[in-house]
Amino acid sequence: MALRLLPGPRFAERTTLRLGGRAAAELAMARPEDWEGLEQALAGSGGRPLALGWGSNLLAHDQDLDLCVVTLPEGEPLAVGQDEDGRVRVRAWGGLMLPRLVNWAAREGYSGLEPLAGIPGTVGGAVAMNAGSYGSETAALLARVLVWDAARGARWIEPGGWRAGYRAFWPEGLDQGAFWLALAAELSLAPARAQDVRLATDATLARKKASQPVSAATCGCVFKNPEGESAGRMLDELGFKGKSLGGMCFSPMHANFLVNEGRGSATAALELINRARASVWERFGVELELEVKVLA
């Protein structure tokens, strides 16, 4: 089955924040090699391209949007070799759900992904956002990444072929703002006892469940942490923990998590975000940068 052009999905049904209107179209890749027809298909889709995985870091406006979402094949994780230092190369396709990969690694006894437990998203999204927690980042585990862009097609890049930072990853030589995809990733993981990896994975999950609204309709952290500071701490000090507006609220568990209480709207979410940013600027002189991606 080749690349399929489908009706555009409603972002309220395809994002974890449960907000947003309908996209113009969806291009679904059934196989990694479907990238060969992607440029032409995007040109005829009638929408701006957007890679959509789990939709866990997106805040989509309430109206319909002229976006064509691109979804990647999921596949199965596979150990493809061993490096000279004894670490194992694990290949995962961009559409694979990150929790599936984390659990697979725990069963197989491959260590390194434990801090990423509990992060909703796909492997491609984890690469593109350089997802991480508790001091760990996806980029630090990458041996190479299969990327695609319209100018050069698909190619593997290795360390030195990308720039990575806090919640940011960008292939070298790609124009800022250009559309690109992480079709697959090869991660370097350490062999370990499966029992030990499982215990560490479960410990991460327990820690997150104790302090984050992991079961709520949320987009995760709204703001990036300023250097040497915690956005959640500043918001908590200003009384934003639990503050609500129009069916949206900052979580009572963690002030940097925005939650849809079931009847929220993007309009209310953005107003709440703007109020929080203004308050932090007024009190601390810090301009908070969004971690969530706003679709308009």
Automatic annotation (TrEMBL):
It holds the Pfam family FAD_binding_4. GO terms for molecular function: FAD binding; UDP-N-acetylmuramate dehydrogenase activity. The keyword Oxidoreductase applies. Residues 19-192 form the FAD-binding PCMH-type domain. Its EC number is 1.3.1.98. GO terms for biological process: cell division; cell wall organization; peptidoglycan biosynthetic process; regulation of cell shape. It catalyses: UDP-N-acetyl-alpha-D-muramate + NADP(+) = UDP-N-acetyl-3-O-(1-carboxyvinyl)-alpha-D-glucosamine + NADPH + H(+). Its main location: cytoplasm. Keywords: Cell cycle, Cell division, Cell shape, Cell wall biogenesis/degradation, Cytoplasm, FAD, Flavoprotein, NADP, Oxidoreductase, Peptidoglycan synthesis. The keyword NADP applies. Pathway: Cell wall biogenesis; peptidoglycan biosynthesis. GO terms for cellular component: cytosol. It is found in: Cytoplasm. Cell wall formation. HAMAP family: MurB. Belongs to the MurB family. This is UDP-N-acetylenolpyruvoylglucosamine reductase. It comes from Fundidesulfovibrio magnetotacticus.
